[in-house]
Write a structure and sequence with these properties.
With 128 residues, the protein is α/β, with parallel strands linked by helices. It contains four helices and four strands, in the order βαβααββα.
Length: 128
């Protein structure tokens, strides 16, 4: 059975994109049947340039573009990961996993590392 993971961050242009990318990579490596989606309550028009560059530098292909989170997204998700959104801005009452990571603007490398480690951990826990 495919597990759907919805990654949320306020602008759907940075942290959630990194999380989904790292999660999909880990899921593939672990043979976990999983699909990641990305959204946010206040989506930007495009990915953050530093995020785009970091993904390319790490050999990843862009797979997501910022978009508004909907109730349909939340309803279709088996797991919802909230990375910095106000819970009231997410159209669901489903439980969410909360990841507290540094802001990309404050500590880009630290945030990226924290997101990577959390995404790897999530994939491992779902593969059990």
């Amino acid at each position: 059975m495919t597990v759907t993971v919805l990654f949320l961050c306020p602008h759907a242009a940075g942290k959630s994109v990194l999380a989904a990318t790292y999660f999909q990579s880990a899921a593939a490596r672990l043979s976990l049947d999983a699909v990641a989606t990305v959204a946010g309550p206040e989506p930007e028009d495009d990915l953050g340039p530093r995020v785009r560059t970091a993904l390319h530098d790490q050999g990843f292909v862009e797979r997501w573009t910022p978009r508004l989170v909907t109730a349909v997204d939340a309803a279709g998700a088996d797991v919802i990961v909230n990375i910095g959104c106000e819970a009231s801005t997410i159209p669901t009452d489903k439980p969410m996993i909360e990841w507290d990571v540094p802001l990309l603007t404050d500590d880009f490398q630290g945030s990226m590392t924290a997101i990577h480690d959390l995404a790897e951990s999530l994939a491992r826990s779902l593969s059990k």
